[in-house]
Amino acid sequence: MCYFAARSLGMSAIEVTVISGRSLSQARSRELGKFSEEYSRSVAVCELDPDDMKELGALDGENVRVKTRFGEVILRASVSRQAPHKRVAFIPYGAWASMLFGTATHTSGMPTLKGVKATVERAAEAKVANLHEITRMKAE
Known about the structure:
The protein is of the alpha+beta class and 140 residues long. The chain has 5 helices and 7 strands.
C-alpha cells in the first residue's frame, strides 16, 4: 500500500508524505498483463480518505497531480474503501509510483519508497499516462 499523511494547503491541494506498497487489485490485474487497461486502472490510482477527498475538492474518479522533489505523475483519485484513515492515502507500487521516488538505495538494493514529501492537487483535465508513456517519461 502507498499511504500519504496529509495537511491542507488550500481547497485544491494538500501536502502529503508518500508511502508505497502492493495492492490486491494490482496482483489480480497483473495476471491480465502489465499493459492491460485493468492493470493501469488498478495501479495509476491514489486512494484518499473521504474527508481528505472533500478537503481537496476532488471527486471520485477525478484525476490528481502528485508532485515530489523527484518528479510528478497524474493519477486517478479514489475514495478509499479502507477508511477511516484521515490524512492517509494509498497508491500501489508500479511505474506511476516510481515517478515520485529517487533511485538511491542506501545499500539496501531497493530505493526508499516511503516518507517522501509530496503535494496532491486536482488535475481534472490532465490525462493519466499509460504504461508505454510512463516508461518513456521515466527514461527521459
